[in-house]
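hey so u asked for the seq, here:
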Amino acid sequence: MVRDGTEPVSDIRVELAVQRTELALHRTQLSWARTVIGLIGAGVALDKGLRFLHEARVLSGQAWTRNGHAGGLILTAASTLLLIVVSWEHWKTARWLSRLKGAGSFPFPFTLIVSFMVIVLGAIVFVVLLADKSP
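ran it, structure tokens below
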């Protein structure tokens, strides 16, 4: 039964529409994962690139803080949290589409496995950046 309590529709046009929607959903999720990988890389580049500027400001006494990698940490954490939220919505929608098709069990989408690996990567990069104690 689908969300509104009706039986799944057996019309081939509806089945094809659901398949197209599922493929578009998975394609969109993979593009989110690709974007977050890029944002994590940008966070690392921002962290390491601005380190040199911050070291010069600390030596001259013009720095506001003693820690110069807040930008990289924020970008990495925000992009990883964004992928968590997007993955949650993807999972709910994929489960709903599976019920709409009338599938007996919900197959776990491969895109969520990829997203989970990117989330783990983001968490590892965040911890490594956080543990970096160089000025």
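The chain has a mean pLDDT of 83. The chain has one domain: 12-131.
lmk if thats what u needed
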